[in-house]
């Protein structure tokens, strides 16, 4: 069965579900809502997702129409309120498949019952977003750095929650993207030293001054109106069909388990912030146009990808400014978003 593209819209009294199913067989159409779970089936399509609020489930209260391959289902809300997270497609689909929504479970994945729940003592602690590593800026970068030949007992880790290691023992395409020399032989506490030394070598005062005074080179990118800052989009720009398709495909993948310690959770959020900063900068550089070099630009601007380095918010932002100054435009350009 195929999962059709869908989107949700709402007002204070109703919730509209738009389902794009051009090949649906109308004689096999079934639509129902059971315990806040929306079901749609019309061969070869099948859709099930969680409704983030209470609606009337009687068929008499639904309004169903079909036009140009798209079904429109209007559901009436029980309370006059706005539902949250209507654009989080993965959350809605996975919510319908959660163990709490299943009445009959024949095969169940077992494990630690609280593997996805933080300890109460950790929840009560305030996250240390600005507590960086002691080696970050206190290291001596005047001495030439070389990759140590000492034996590393435990292989350095990197990637999502530090779940990867040993990926660079054999040269591959990934090797050309990473700036950190010998990632599987450099200790995590030495990554910052190599990065700062590389940034100092790449920085060009002439390039920096040229960007400062030759404003015509970057003024159009500076004045670009980005879609997520438009005044009329309260919930952000609307997703495209391609983006919805990717989210639906993502909902079928088995994701890594949620980390249980606060330090790992902080590193995940900082890594996300690092990627968002790099993406917004790249979006302005290419002025919103699709460009094949975007992946390379983001990788080079995000130290999470090129140096496998995450510490705290202040250090992350400083690293981002230094990367922008040594690669593209001057640092003033970073303040736009």
From TrEMBL:
InterPro entries: HSP20-like_chaperone (IPR008978), Shq1 (IPR039742), SHQ1-like_CS (IPR048696), Shq1_C (IPR007009). Residues 3-93 form the SHQ1-like CS domain. One of its GO terms (biological process) is box H/ACA snoRNP assembly. Residues 237-322 form the Shq1 C-terminal domain. This is Protein SHQ1 homolog. One of its GO terms (molecular function) is unfolded protein binding. Belongs to the SHQ1 family. One of its GO terms (cellular component) is nucleoplasm.
């Amino acid at each position: 069965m195929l999962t059709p593209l869908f989107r949700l819209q709402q007002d204070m009294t109703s919730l509209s579900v738009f389902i794009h199913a051009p090949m649906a067989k109308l004689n096999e159409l079934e639509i129902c809502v059971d315990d806040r779970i929306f079901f749609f089936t019309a061969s070869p399509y099948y859709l099930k997702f969680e409704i983030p609020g209470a609606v009337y489930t009687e068929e008499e209260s639904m309004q169903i129409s079909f036009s140009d391959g798209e079904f429109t289902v209007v559901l009436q809300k029980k309370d006059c309120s706005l539902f949250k997270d209507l654009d989080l497609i993965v959350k809605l689909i996975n919510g319908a498949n959660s163990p709490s929504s299943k009445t009959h479970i024949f095969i169940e994945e077992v494990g630690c019952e609280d593997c996805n729940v933080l300890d109460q003592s950790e929840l009560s602690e305030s996250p240390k977003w600005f507590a960086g590593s002691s080696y970050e800026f206190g290291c001596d970068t005047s001495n030439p750095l070389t990759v140590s030949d000492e034996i590393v007992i435990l292989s350095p880790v990197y990637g999502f929650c530090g779940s990867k290691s040993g990926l660079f023992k054999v040269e591959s395409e990934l090797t050309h993207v990473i700036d950190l020399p010998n990632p599987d032989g450099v200790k995590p506490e030495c990554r910052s030293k190599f990065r700062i030394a590389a940034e100092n070598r790449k920085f060009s005062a002439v390039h920096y001054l040229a960007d400062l005074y030759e404003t015509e080179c970057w003024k159009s990118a500076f004045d670009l109106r980005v879609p997520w800052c438009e005044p009329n989009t309260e919930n952000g720009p609307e997703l495209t069909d391609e983006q919805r398709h990717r989210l639906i495909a993502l909902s079928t993948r088995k994701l890594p388990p949620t980390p249980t310690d606060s330090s790992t959770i902080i590193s995940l959020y900082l890594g996300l912030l690092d990627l968002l900063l790099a993406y917004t900068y790249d979006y302005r550089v290419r002025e919103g146009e699709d460009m094949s070099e975007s992946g390379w630009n983001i990788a080079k601007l995000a130290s999470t990808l090129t140096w496998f380095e995450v510490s705290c918010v202040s250090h992350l932002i400083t690293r981002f400014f230094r990367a922008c100054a040594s690669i593209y435009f001057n640092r003033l350009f970073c303040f736009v978003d």
